[in-house]
Each structure stands twice: as C-alpha cells, then as structure tokens.
Amino acid sequence: MNKPAAVALPLLSVAVLALGACGSDGGGGSGGAASPTADSGVTLQLGSTEAGKVLVDSAGRTVYYYDKDQPGETTSACTGPCVGLWPAVPAPSSPTLGDGVQGKLGTVKGADGGDQLTLDGHPLYTYASDKEAGDAYGQGYGGIWWVVGPDGTKMTTPASPSSGGSSDSGDSGGGGGYGY
C-alpha cells in the first residue's frame, strides 16, 4: 500500500506543475508579478537574449519562427505533439508592434482552431522550455526553429553553449526529437 502512494505522489506533483505551466502559456493568467510589457498594450516588442535583440510577446517570452511554416499559408504547420513544446502566440483582437519592430501583423488558424499571430505571414511561437524573459533555449532547435529579429527575419545564429537548451527535455529522440 505504501508503494502505490510513493509512486502516486510524485506523479501528482508532476501533473500539478504541468497544469500550472499550461495555464501560464495563455498570456492572460495572473500568476507571478506582471512584467512591464504585459501592461503596455504592445503585442510584439524587442527583448534581450544571448542571441541579441529579438522579438518577444506581451509576457516577455522570446518569439520563434518554424521553418516548416510557409508565409501565406492559412494554417500552422506545428500540430500534434509539436504544439506542446512550441505553443502558438495567440492573436489578440488588436495586435500592435512596439518601437523598433518591423513587419506586418496577421493571423492564421493554430492547431487548436484559434487565431495565431503572424509576422509578415510567418506564424509565431514560443518555446515551452523558455521560462523567463531573456531565455532563448529554442534558438536553432533541430535546425528549424529560430528567434525573430527586430526586422522580422529569422536569426540563424546558433545559441551559445551556455544557453543551448540541452538541459531541457526537448530533444527526446536524438536527431528527430520534437524539431519536426
């Protein structure tokens, strides 16, 4: 009887943490202290990472492009398990660009059927392992995920060894992983 309890408690803890993380990805939660960007009314703005100045969402999370997405498509190419690791940046009703950000905002249908924000026709994502402002652990992931520069283009400079995402569980399969 003690053995099942010893197994169930850690599993319950993991489930609670996972649900908490899911709730914070929506951008509308009230967990933690609000960053200055969350109140600015700006959907995309500049933030600093080890990769340099990049686009971040209203919560300060680094924004990424996915090479398998094609500009002008009406849906995101990130589906299935990809969505859990690479959440879509949801499109607010009136998206805006911050100072120094170039490009045209739009939307596509995300895997969940909701509107996903695009920049110059490219769907935008965050990376689940980026936990704090300034994290860019998804940079160069699988050779197909890239942070977005201030001019709206993907930045293909690899992440530095100190930020290289190897401490997360993303590349679970080696080679293919969830790089898709």
From TrEMBL:
Alphabetical GO biological process terms: alkane catabolic process
Signal peptide as annotated in the record: 1-20
Superkingdom assignment: Bacteria
Protein name in UniProt: Lipoprotein
Keywords: Signal
Region annotation (Disordered) ranges: 156-180
Gly residues bias spans: 171-180
Residue stretches in coiled coil: none
